[in-house]
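Inverse folding, one chain.
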């Protein structure tokens, strides 16, 4: 059993999760990142002081195994950021049952099961540090739906709803909030036409990058009077 009280970032070996891990390490947090595929970023994170733990949330057993490892190694947690996600579409996933199960497994069941399992550890973190947080990384489409990512959007809406229930259940010790981004960053393979259309979906016409997601996480973690809420990061997309 170690004496650190980490904040867990699921799926933290790339893009937003990685940027959050680096920023929170610089802010002085103990950071534990979960990864599935091995990536060069893991060595860098370990060099910076993070612990990197393999976890695959695509099965019930994978979630249970991760919970067992955390409970074995820690008696308290500063928090958990449910960032792990897959943005699968109906176009690339022809089997509706498989797609829906996959999206709800990673975006709803895994966070739900972990939140319940880590209740006592989060309370212990609160007793020691005076703060404990759960952050759900949802999506703008949880509110509006998406014609090309129907199952994905529904599962992010499920995750958004968990925010309300866990905020009630864990109050006043653990704050539970969502961050709901719209476009943060493109993928290298996105073509010019796609990029233009995506940028035009918001009032601010930006793909702001990881840094805006990081700032949102830092705000939620610093804040002491916000729970059961969603911080929207969408460039005013709801007004277009
Ligand atoms: N990027 C954007 O513009 C937007 C992002 N968001 C949300 O913000 C968050 C971060 O986005 P982004 O950085 O782009 O995410 P990415 O898709 O780039 O990364 C997600 C991470 O989750 C991990 N992951 C996926 N499935 C599983 C699983 N079953 N078990 C364990 N780990 C898993 C992946 O690991 P591996 O590669 O090893 O599978 C990967 O490291 C996500 O929740 C996303 O939905 C919302 C709106 C816009
Ligand atoms: N897990 C992921 N979720 C999302 C991603 C992603 O790359 N991984 N990307 C998006 C898009 O940026 C979209 O918001 C605009 O094209 C949404 N969710």
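Residues assigned per position:
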């Amino acid at each position: 059993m170690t004496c650190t009280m980490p904040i867990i970032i699921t799926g933290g070996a790339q893009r937003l999760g990685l940027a959050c891990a680096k920023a929170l390490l610089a802010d002085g947090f103990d950071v534990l990142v979960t990864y599935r595929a091995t990536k060069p970023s893991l060595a860098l994170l370990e060099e910076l002081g993070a612990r990197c733990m393999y976890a695959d949330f695509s099965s019930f057993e994978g979630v249970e195994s991760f919970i067992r490892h955390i409970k074995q190694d820690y008696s308290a947690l500063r928090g958990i950021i449910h960032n792990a996600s897959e943005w699968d579409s109906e176009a690339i996933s022809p089997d509706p049952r498989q797609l829906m199960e996959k999206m709800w497994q990673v975006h709803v069941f895994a966070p739900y099961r972990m939140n319940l399992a880590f209740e006592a550890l989060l309370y212990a973190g609160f007793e020691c540090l005076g703060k404990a947080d759960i952050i759900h990384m949802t999506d703008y489409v949880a509110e509006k739906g998406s014609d090309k990512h129907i199952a994905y959007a529904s599962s992010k809406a499920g995750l958004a709803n968990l925010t309300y229930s866990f905020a009630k259940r864990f109050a006043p010790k653990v704050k539970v909030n969502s961050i709901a981004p719209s476009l943060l960053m493109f993928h290298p393979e996105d073509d010019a036409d796609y990029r233009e259309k995506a940028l035009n979906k918001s009032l601010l016409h930006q793909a702001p990058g990881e840094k805006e997601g990081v700032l949102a996480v830092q705000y939620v973690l610093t804040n002491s009077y916000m729970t059961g809420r969603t911080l929207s990061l969408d460039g005013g997309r709801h007004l277009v």
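The pocket of LV4SOB2L (ligand 2) is lined by residues 85-87, 139, 182-183, 198 (CB under 6 Å). The chain has one domain: 7-239.
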